[in-house]
Every structure is written in C-alpha cells, then in structure tokens.
C-alpha cells in the first residue's frame, strides 16, 4: 500500500524479465489453490472480511478492486514501465478520469490531430459542461506550446502516431518544454502500443490506451487503460476509478489480459504486413499520398525511428479522385472489412471523415474527405494486397 490512500497499491514491475515474458507473466502468478496457469475470472462482487472494514485478502468490493482486474493492471503497467496502472471500461472513460482530476477553468493543449471521440469528450463534455478549455497546437513544433501556454494551462495531450493522419510528435522534446512550464504530458499510446513505444521512458507523465485496440487485439472487448509513475496523479486516479465506477468487468479484464500475451508477435506481423501494403499503395495511380511513419519521406520519420521500435500497423492514404473515390474504395474490399475501430487481428478499412472523425468536422482537427484509413491485420499479406489493389481499381 502506498501513500495515504488505502486503495492505492503500486505494482512492482519485474523489469529483469524481457517484454515478451512480462506480456505473458507479469501480475499473473499461478493460481494458489489449483496451480492453474491462467488467471481465473473472479466474478465475486464482494469479498469476506475478518472484522468490519478488514478484508481477508485485500479485496472488499469489486468496483474498488478485483483480482482479475489487478492481474491485468499489473501486466500492462509493467509493459509501459509504470508503477501504477488503472483499467477502465473504455478508452474514453480512461481519458475521462484524467480530465476529471483537472479543476474547472483548466486548459488542455491538444495536438491538432486526434481521435474524434477524444476531441468530443474534451470539447463538448468537459468543455461545455465542466469548464475545461482546449486549444489545438501543432505539436510538430514543440516551441509553439510556449506561445499557447496560459496561467490556466495544465496538460498537453497528444497521440503519436496520430489517428488518422499518422503524424509523429517528439515525446522527449515536448515533455522537456511542458515540464519547464510546470505541466503534465499525456500520451495516447493506442497506435504504437508499449511494444513499439514507451512514452514514460521518453519523459511523458501519463500513458493512456484504448485497450479495445491492439492490447485486446481481437475486436472482442472494449476497454481503456491509464499508466503512470506519478504518485499524486495515481492517487487521484484510483479515487476516480472507484468513485465514478467506470471499471471493466472481470470477463473484459480476462479477455484483455489474454490478448496482451500475444501483443509482441501480433505487432511484429502488423508492422511487416503494413510495410508491404505501403509499398503497393505508393505505386498505385489512384493514390495521391500515403501516410505512414515508416516511409523515409514522412515528415516524422526520423523522430519515429528514434522513439519507436517499428512503425506500426496503421496506414492512411489519400485519393486523387476525392471523397467519392474514397467511398468507392472502402465499399469494394472483401478481406478488409468496412468498419470502425482498429488494432485487431483482422484488417479493417474506413473513411474517417464520415466515420471515426465525424465529430471533428468544422474544428481545427477536421480531416480531409479524400482520406482512407486502414488497420492492417495479420492475415496473409498477399490476400491483403490483392484485395486493396482490386478495390483501388474502383477508385475511378
Ligand atoms: C487513438 C484512440 N484513443 C482513444 C480511443 C477511444 O477508445 P474507446 O473506443 O475504447 O473508448 C480511440 C477509439 O477509437 C482511439 O482510436
């Protein structure tokens, strides 16, 4: 137990083991009673107490703490190099917990490309209803943070690579500027995952995830995660996690924990397949621009090469034929499924302007209408390539 809050316990991260070992074992001792090697799904909502207020095994009520959730929290915290990890019912509820610990009137500086739902949460829910201000900043120029910073500024929020434009921001340079100003840096690490990028090591204060994506990895669980080494923030988060109650079910935690075991092998294949697809897209006449940080021509390539182990499975591209061409491409694939979300074993394709990023229309974060985003899965890459090529032939 840490600090003054009895709910807050820091995880000892077994850093002597490699990433792949921790993905499978961290936080998951063999079941004490049966020797089972898989963490049980602990469905009990309440736990026996020895005397009033003194739980037998540290657990009292499942919203407050649950053994399956704790195993999952310990595992992902370990992968992010964090002492504290908190699982939430969705990526947005994880983000919401971070916004809730800001006092009304605080300002958030936001990278000028981000998931539409994040912008909606900051701008419409916390902005209009709880008095948080937000300003979009071009974070490719970290010095611009100083110009946008006001006495009310508290937090810089960034994705890297971003959704859906695949921009890359220098986490170390941004953290240096923000720390000089006395602020906190939050990195949404959903696209990169801790396997490819560890923001806390690069100076960020907090990592957030939509665990619905690569962490779960199979399109069968919605979840969110926050990891940090900052004890006072962790105290706020554990309080909010329990007081608000946006927690994942034990079954959701089991699914995410099962998914994360294969994160390294899945990510290797996502990256390999994406690189081959990028080469094909670059050669296709219907495509005007490919956005992928692994390309030397990408403006963020050098930063990505420095702060990421590989370049990920997300690719966006723009079509010469505009919005109608984009619509024709996304409706003509067979192996790629036209659907929202990303980061799972199956390949998905979407049109961000009218799907995932509709909520940023008219804002500084608006996305081009000729943009297509693909989440490259781990199927046979030859099938993915021929599917995309035949769909691009419909671009007109
Ligand atoms: C980068 C990013 N962050 C956060 C979220 C929100 O996560 P969730 O859908 O799990 O609430 C998403 C969802 O697509 C996302 O892509």
Keywords:
seven-stranded mixed beta sheet, 13 helices, five-stranded mixed beta sheet, Aspartate Aminotransferase, domain 2, alpha/beta, Aspartate Aminotransferase, domain 1, binds pyridoxal-5'-phosphate
Please give a structural write-up:
This protein is 35% helix and 16% strand. The protein is of the alpha/beta class and 396 residues long. Helix 1 runs antiparallel to helix 2, helix 3 (91-100) packs parallel to helix 4 and helix 10 packs parallel to helix 13. Bound molecules: pyridoxal-5'-phosphate. Pyridoxal-5'-phosphate (PLP) is lined by residues 90-92, 115, 117-118, 159, 163, 188, 190, 210, 212, 222, 224.
Short structural summary:
By secondary structure, this protein is α/β, with parallel strands linked by helices. The chain contains 13 helices and 14 strands.
SSE arrangement:
Blueprint: H1 19-25, E1 49-51, E2 54-55, H2 67-79, E3 84-88, H3 91-100, E4 107-111, H4 116-130, E5 133-137, H5 144-148, E6 153-159, H6 171-180, E7 184-188, H7 193-196, E8 206-210, E9 224-228, H8 231-244, H9 250-260, H10 263-283, E10 287-291, H11 301-307, E11 314-319, H12 322-330, E12 337-338, E13 348-350, E14 371-375, H13 381-392
Parallel strand pairs: 4-5, 4-6, 6-7, 7-8, 12-13
Antiparallel strand pairs: 1-2, 3-9, 8-9, 10-11, 11-14, 13-14
Helix pairs in contact: 1-2, 2-9, 3-4, 10-13
The chain binds pyridoxal-5'-phosphate.
Task: Spell the H/E element sequence.
Answer: HEEHEHEHEHEHEHEEHHHEHEHEEEH
- Give the CATH class of the largest domain: Alpha Beta
| Low-pLDDT regions | 1-6
Strand order of the biggest β-sheet: 3-9-8-7-6-4-5
* Estimated structural class: alpha/beta
């Amino acid at each position: 137990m840490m600090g003054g809050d009895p709910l807050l316990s820091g995880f000892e991260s077994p850093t002597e083991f490699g990433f792949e070992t921790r993905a499978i074992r961290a936080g998951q001792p063999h079941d004490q009673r049966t020797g089972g090697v898989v963490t049980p799904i602990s469905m009990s909502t309440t736990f026996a107490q020895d005397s009033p207020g003194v739980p037998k095994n540290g657990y009292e009520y499942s919203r407050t703490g649950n053994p399956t959730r704790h195993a999952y929290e310990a595992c992902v915290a370990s992968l992010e190099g964090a002492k504290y990890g908190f699982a939430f019912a969705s990526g947005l509820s994880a983000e919401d917990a971070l916004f809730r610990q800001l006092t009304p009137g605080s300002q958030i500086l936001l990278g000028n490309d981000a998931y539409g739902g994040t912008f909606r949460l900051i701008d419409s829910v916390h902005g209009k209803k709880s008095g948080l201000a937000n300003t979009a900043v071009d974070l490719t120029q970290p010095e611009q943070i100083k110009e946008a910073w006001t006495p009310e500024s508290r937090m810089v929020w960034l994705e890297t690579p971003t959704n859906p434009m695949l921009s890359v921001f220098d986490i170390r340079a941004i953290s240096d500027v923000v720390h000089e100003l006395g602020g906190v840096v939050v990195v949404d690490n959903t696209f990169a995952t801790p396997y490819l990028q560890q923001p806390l090591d690069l100076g960020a204060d907090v990592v957030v995830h939509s665990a619905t994506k690569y962490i779960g990895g199979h399109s069968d669980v919605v979840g969110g995660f926050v990891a940090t080494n900052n004890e006072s923030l962790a105290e706020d988060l554990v309080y909010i996690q329990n007081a608000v109650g946006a927690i994942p079910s034990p079954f959701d935690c089991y699914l995410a924990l099962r998914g994360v075991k294969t994160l390294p092998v899945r990510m290797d294949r996502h990256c390999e397949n994406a690189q081959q697809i990028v080469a094909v897209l670059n050669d296709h006449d219907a495509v005007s621009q490919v956005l992928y940080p692994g390309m030397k021509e990408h403006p963020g390539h050098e930063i990505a090469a420095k702060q990421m182990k590989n370049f990920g499975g997300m690719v966006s591209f723009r079509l010469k034929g505009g919005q109608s061409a984009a619509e024709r491409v996304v409706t003509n694939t067979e192996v790629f499924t036209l659907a929202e979300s990303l980061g799972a074993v199956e390949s998905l394709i979407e049109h961000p302007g009218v799907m995932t990023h509709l909520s940023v229309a008219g804002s500084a974060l608006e996305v081009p209408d000729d943009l297509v985003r693909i989440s490259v899965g781990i199927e046979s890459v030859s099938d993915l390539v021929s599917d995309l090529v035949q769909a691009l032939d419909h671009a007109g």
